[in-house]
# Entry
Amino acid sequence: MTILVTGGAGYIGAHTTVQLIEQNHDVVIIDNLSHSTIEPLRRIEAITGEMPRFYQGNVQDRQLLQLIFQRHNIEAVIHFAGSKSVGESVADPLAYYHNNIASTLVLCQTMSRFNVFNLVFSSSAAVYGNNASVPVLENMPTQATSPYGRTKLMIEQILEDLHATDSRWSIARLRYFNPIGAHYSGLIGEDPQGLPSNLVPYLSQVAMGSLEQLAVFGDDYDTPDGTGIRDFIHVVDLADAHQKSLHFIAGHPGLHTFNLGTGRGHSVLEMIAAFELASGKTIPYTIHPRREGDIGKSWACAELAKAKLGWQAKRTLQQMLQDAWRWQLQNPEGYEQPLLNQPIPLRMAS
Ligand SMILES: NC(=O)c1ccc[n+]([C@@H]2O[C@H](COP(=O)([O-])OP(=O)(O)OC[C@H]3O[C@@H](n4cnc5c(N)ncnc54)[C@H](O)[C@@H]3O)[C@@H](O)[C@H]2O)c1
# Structure
């Protein structure tokens, strides 16, 4: 199958592209490199032996998208491209509404024009806001609490409307919980620009000594140790779910929504202890008051994805953190340090 991957140079997009290539799919990437560089593409080639076809540009660039659809026999799209920081979205909501929503509109219009109706969309557990009880089920009420979360909800609604008016659309809306970890080779991973806003990149930088300590926000939640609990999922397991979703929507036209998580939560203090074990480093931390808008506990019920997609997260927390740490050790400057003579490990037998 020929698959267009928007945002394929990003964290989850690069891991998914590796798997798609390994499954003999043809991958075409469009990415404007606003939150990445060309380097992950070289790393994808180092892992798979194949350089995906790449267009540097904005998904909102209708002419470029049309050119891509004219040149390649695109059969399905995985739409990762978007802005993803909750904090940034609060500071500059218009930029978030514009980038995330306009990109999706232009993409869907172009797909429709070229009779491509199979779409996998990156949504987020952020659509549940702070109302949901745990474990979170797909049919629980949604109520995003940030402009970022609202862009995901709005896009989910747009896709619902699209499907309601044209039943040729077959769409999977994938609600990710907390993706962490990296490819086992240590060649691709999460490369935050500036101060990390996610827990594991932050822990990695504290362990490296480039950040002094971790700030833990809130130790008075209704959880066993008082700190917040989240459902962390290995990015490679997440990538696998995309592949299975593509297969599923090809055989089951409709609008589908799946939680992607492990179904287990870990508290911040548990994460610190597990990261210390994985890295052999001590993580200094300080406790601060709760942050506004944060919730105490969130983990997925991922039974629907198991039943329909035949997908289940396989990797343990220890694997997630070992892989994240290997990525950090091999790439202390992230992708800024180009691949030179790093040994390429053999492919892991699955
Ligand atoms: N990583 C997470 O914690 C998480 C959780 C839930 C949902 N998501 C969603 O998953 C998707 C991928 O996340 P990620 O972590 O890989 O993010 P990322 O920032 O690493 O990757 C996104 C990629 O999209 C590109 N991009 C952004 N806007 C673009 C545009 N208009 N045109 C072309 N390219 C554009 C960026 O350059 C980047 O390479 C995003 O939609 C994000 O909202 C991520």
